[in-house]
């Protein structure tokens, strides 16, 4: 079973019928800071080595989203967990992040997850790139 997750991918279904994926990371891992959050074009855990995708930087989100599924207050839709993960070997190089993520699909049922080495770098203030360096 996975220990406390440090990252989560949520499918956010909106009232208008559209949806997107929110990727949230506990980059500080201090137990109190909000989650660094991105809207991504697809599932990060499905990126193959050498592949990349765009990410839109969103406002930080509450830590409750590491484990929350269900409706969002204010008629903003609902969220469903797609994958959770832990990461280590975090390196912050200026405004770039590099880390090794071990992912588990929801529901978490296996003790061994898929691993990815991910690089997260800004292209502009709001536009970022997520690249899978290795699987």
Structure overview:
By secondary structure, the protein is mainly β. The chain has one domain (7-134). It has strands at 7-13, 19-25, 35-40, 52-61, 70-71, 78-93, 96-105, 114-122, 127-134. It has an eight-stranded antiparallel beta barrel. A hairpin with a 6-residue loop joins strand 5 (70-71) and strand 6 (78-93). The radius of gyration is 14 Å and the shape is globular. The mean pLDDT is 89.
Mean pLDDT: 89
Total strands: the figure is 9
Q: How far is the first residue's CA from the last residue's CA?
A: 21 Å
Q: How many structural domains does the protein architecture include?
A: 1
Helix residue percentage: under 10%
Note poorly predicted spans: none
Please summarize the sheet with the most strands.
8 strands, antiparallel, barrel
Envelope shape: globular
* Structure class: mainly beta
The strand order across the widest sheet is 1-2-3-4-9-8-7-6
Backbone CA Rg:
14 Å
Separate helix tally: 0
Q: Estimate what percentage of residues fall within beta strands.
A: over 45%
Provide the succession of SSEs: EEEEEEEEE
Q: Quick recap of the structure?
A:
The protein is mostly beta strands. The protein is 0% helix and 56% strand.
Layout of secondary structure:
Blueprint: E1 7-13, E2 19-25, E3 35-40, E4 52-61, E5 70-71, E6 78-93, E7 96-105, E8 114-122, E9 127-134
Antiparallel strand pairs: 1-2, 1-6, 2-3, 3-4, 4-9, 5-6, 6-7, 7-8, 8-9
Features:
single chain, 135 residues, mainly beta, eight-stranded antiparallel beta barrel, 9 strands, globular
